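To the wet lab folks,

You asked to see what we're planning to order before we commit. Fair enough. Below is the target structure as tokens, and below that is the sequence we designed to fit it. If anything looks off to you, flag it before the synthesis order goes out.
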């Protein structure tokens, strides 16, 4: 993998809504006329199946509001002229509850399913959707994945019906360890993750990639803890301190990261944290003014993307007194509406075929591509660091006076990782 890093100063961000560049291999895209609205007024019903209660409920409710906010924005203006309607179902972070919610949604005529929090849930949904679509021709549903990042979803468990718009664990770890490679003060790393597929994968690939890029770094400890059950992380922080680790790599999210950060502050641990989800509900408040220059996030976006996204983020804050951070939602609406224009239909099979290989000039961070071979969106990644908000990077999540400021950008070809997917398509 090329370890090239493009400094953020070399890139100008910010594109306006509706600036769509279209190119797709094997679709009828060349025949579509940008600006035509063949489906004017047709309603596309979408259901988001995710946690709306419990320790992770804060994240799920934030994201449901985000989906509904952008459904309104894109209903007002999208290439296909469709209207989007998004509702939510509480799955309590349970795969079983999620499959039941899927069945109920299908019975109500919903053809587009959304989910993101919990790869264990995502894997259960993929299996259930595959079976439903095979058994019910003409009633197929498509699964739009905004946050579940287990690599298996676009490798051994890849599905024609699943499209991932977040970057998977390997993509993020590739960029994260490329950044860490240049941080010579990192000598000892502790791996701390949730005990389910996502957390296990973070630990696995961290060891693999660090060995390749920085074999001198010592892994001094590793823990996997129950997902969304731990309320006191002080004993874990004591172990991390005792290990002598100068840095922690964690894929934790929601309360599991917020409470970990809080315990680290209270327990006097002053090492670095390399995270996937610092910007997510609860963690900014847990950090407060602490952790400046020591807490990093690798992601496909950050709070200060510029242009149209900054305007949307500000409007979201004013409307909900909450922070918008799931930028994959924007990408989903951009790609989905463009695919519906190409397909001249909202039929899931036709839209799925149109999304394969589709390239779109996103409203942030340039051109992205839905890779045909595995349905993994190819997109830039950003390393950002927790610091005081300033004139250049002004957005302050959870009113902390702090922000995530970008320090490096990794373009599509650097953040991309291979796939072993053997896609089975309708008719194969």
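Sequence we intend to order:
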């Amino acid at each position: 993998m090329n370890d090239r890093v493009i400094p953020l100063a070399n890139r100008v961000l910010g594109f306006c809504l509706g600036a769509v560049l279209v190119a797709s291999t094997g679709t009828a895209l060349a025949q579509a006329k940008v600006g035509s609205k063949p489906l004017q007024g047709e309603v596309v019903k979408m259901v988001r199946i995710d946690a709306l209660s419990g320790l992770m409920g804060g994240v799920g409710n934030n994201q449901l509001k985000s989906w509904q906010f952008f459904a309104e924005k894109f209903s007002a203006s999208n290439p296909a002229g469709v209207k989007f309607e998004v509702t939510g179902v509480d799955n309590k972070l349970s795969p079983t509850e999620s499959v039941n919610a899927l069945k109920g949604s299908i019975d109500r005529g919903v053809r587009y399913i959304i989910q993101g929090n919990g790869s264990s849930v995502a894997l259960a949904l993929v299996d259930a959707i595959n079976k439903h679509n095979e058994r019910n021709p003409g009633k197929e549903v498509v699964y739009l994945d905004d946050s579940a990042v287990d690599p298996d979803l676009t490798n051994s468990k890849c599905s024609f019906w699943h499209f991932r718009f977040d970057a998977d664990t390997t993509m993020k770890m590739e960029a994260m360890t490329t950044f860490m490679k240049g941080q010579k003060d990192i000598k000892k790393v502790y791996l701390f993750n949730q005990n389910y597929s996502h957390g296990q994968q973070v630990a696995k690939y961290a060891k693999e990639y660090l060995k390749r890029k920085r074999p001198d770094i010592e892994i001094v400890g590793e823990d996997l803890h129950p997902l969304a059950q731990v309320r006191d992380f002080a004993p874990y922080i004591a172990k991390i301190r005792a290990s002598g680790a100068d840095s922690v790599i964690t894929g934790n999210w929601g309360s599991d990261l917020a409470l970990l950060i809080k315990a680290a502050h209270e327990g006097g641990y002053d090492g670095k944290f390399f995270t996937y989800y610092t910007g997510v509900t609860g963690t900014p408040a847990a950090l407060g003014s602490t952790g400046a220059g020591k807490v990093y996030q690798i992601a496909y976006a950050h709070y200060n993307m510029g242009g149209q996204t900054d305007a949307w983020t500000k409007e979201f804050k004013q409307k909900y007194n909450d922070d918008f951070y799931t930028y994959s939602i924007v990408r989903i609406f951009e790609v989905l509406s463009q695919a519906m224009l190409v397909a001249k239909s909202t039929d899931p099979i036709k839209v799925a075929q149109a999304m394969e290989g589709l390239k779109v000039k996103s409203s942030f961070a340039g051109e992205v591509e839905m890779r045909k071979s595995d349905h993994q969106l190819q997109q830039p990644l950003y390393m950002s660091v927790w610091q005081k908000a300033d004139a250049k990077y002004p957005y302050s999540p959870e009113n902390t006076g702090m922000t995530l400021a970008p320090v490096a950008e990794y373009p599509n070809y650097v953040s991309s990782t291979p796939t072993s997917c053997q896609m089975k398509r309708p008719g194969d």
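Structural context that might help your review: Residues 8-168+306-379 form a domain with the Rossmann fold fold (CATH 3.40.50.2300). The CA atoms of residues 94 and 121 lie 6 Å apart.

Thanks,
Computational group
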